[in-house]
Specification:
Blueprint (H helix, E strand, L loop, with lengths): L12 H10 L4 H8 L3 H8 L7 H28 L6
């Protein structure tokens, strides 16, 4: 009986890239949050190398955390009447 991994663990590098871009998050922020070198993240996202399950999990957690942070900042900006481009 095989155990299925969470769908996030099964994401390809190109799917991770699409998720990051859709969230409007710079790759450099993901690298800072995960400790993955920028060149490694780029290679993963372009499908040049296969990421480990641990790397995929770290990238997903970073994307989720950064997306939540971005949403909180946007909410504060809206409350304060700041421009939405911040």
């Amino acid at each position: 009986m095989s155990e299925e991994l969470p769908s996030e663990i099964n994401m390809s590098g190109t799917e991770l890239r699409a998720k990051r871009i859709a969230a409007g998050i710079a790759g450099s922020l993901v690298c800072v949050k995960t400790g993955i070198a920028r060149s490694r993240l780029s290679d993963i996202e372009r499908g040049y190398v296969e990421a480990s399950e641990a790397e995929i999990a770290r990238i997903n957690v970073a994307l989720d955390d950064l997306t939540r942070a971005k949403q909180k900042i946007a909410a504060v900006a809206a409350e304060e009447g700041w421009p939405s481009s911040l």
